[in-house]
Amino acid sequence: MSQPSDRPIVRLRPKAEARALRHGFPWVYADELVTDRRTKALAPGTVARLEDAERRPLGTVAVNPASKIIARMLDRDAEAGIGVDWLKVKIDRALSLRARLYETPFYRLVHAEADGLPGVVIDRFGPAAVIQPNAAWAELQFDALAAALVEVTGVETVIKNGTGRARALEGLAEETRLVQGALDGPVPVPMNGATYMADLMGGQKTGLFYDQRPNQAFAARLAPAGRVLDVFSHVGGFALAALAGGAAHALAVDSSAPALELAQAGAAASGVAGRFDTRKADAFAAMETLAAEGALFDLVVCDPPAFAPNKAALEAGLRAYERVARLAAHLVAPGGYLVVCSCSHAADLTRFRAASARGIGRAGRRGQILFTGFAGPDHPVLPQLAESGYLKAVAFRLSP
Ligand code: SAH
């Protein structure tokens, strides 16, 4: 628990822009803060009082001298006490939004900065929850965070998932462990009319990609009684939703055998296993093979991992998105549908859409855009932080 009286003070440099912070921007970059010896010596995650160059208070921040984001705004009140009670208020606010939006307790409960808990991601799976403490302060206060989560939500099982790129940028080591309760294999998750199986301990990210929910729901409407190809399927996100929506058949392609096993288990749990197949393969190779076999689908969905995770990777990433769209367009039956997705921060919607359209054109096809989707409302976006709007899904109808 950090009380205002025993807190160090950190100060913006004279030229640093305090207005953005006052208007809700949640970060201070390392070159904006006076980094004297005392500030540099603060332990990563220390809670401090932030002042502008004229010593006016800006708020309560978490400092990490080892990170480019040297301070993250925790509270605009410079006198806020940061502990279990404060965490409970934030989690309760996040919970009330999800409780309004969803009928069952399966959702992203906390989406970091946009939910007022910088760097903290919490996905809820009914009576279980997975916490990703991706900032040093959350690592330091992890026990309080888990306690607040249990008190507010009543979850019985808590998992700490300390994987992911963001932790390395904060100087944090990888660690995944069961913190509380028990876990008896993969957890069934009802979503989009299907049942998905999520591996909360050993799976990718927290076990399931909740962010695609609205886009899976839209795509499912495009293929009633049709043939579906779900490329980069993970546990069958798009395929199982489409099958639950009445698709005749779906083929899921992924390079991860464990993900495809979970997809099969999900298909069985959804009662659609007889209409579902998987293929473990590199997606690019698999799409070429399918084209060589003359396969055609009424709906093809491609949801690859982030090909442009940062600005340096942008050009190569856009070429990869173009290639995905080109290979996929060859597999779309005349008048069929193609849904392409990107979860790259660096590739914005305009660039991603242009790259996808180029790929479709190079496949000798034309299209109309039906739908542009983003992450669902359990992934709120802070208007000051464009980066938090990372996911794009664009649905095309291709020419006959
Ligand atoms: N569409 C999924 C999420 C996909 S995440 C959903 O709706 O839930 C991206 C997936 O791509 C991961 O499952 C990963 O295993 C897979 N993947 C990454 N590189 C791949 C490659 N070269 N070929 C096939 N699959 C790949």
TrEMBL record:
Domain S-adenosylmethionine-dependent methyltransferase: 191-345
Pfam families: Methyltrans_SAM, PUA_3
Locations listed in the record: Cytoplasm
The entry's keywords: Cytoplasm, Methyltransferase, S-adenosyl-L-methionine, Transferase
InterPro entries xref list: PUA-like_sf, PUA_sf, RlmI-like_PUA, SAM-dep_methyl-trfase, SAM-dependent_MTases_sf
Domain of life: Bacteria
Coarse class of the protein's main subcellular location: cytoplasm
Domain RlmI-like PUA: 10-76
PANTHER family linked to this entry: RIBOSOMAL RNA LARGE SUBUNIT METHYLTRANSFERASE (PTHR42873), S-ADENOSYLMETHIONINE-DEPENDENT METHYLTRANSFERASE DOMAIN-CONTAINING PROTEIN (PTHR42873:SF1)
Family listed: Belongs to the methyltransferase superfamily. RlmI family.
NCBIfam families: RSP_2647_MTase
Protein name: 23S rRNA (Cytosine1962-C5)-methyltransferase
Protein species of origin: Rhodovulum iodosum
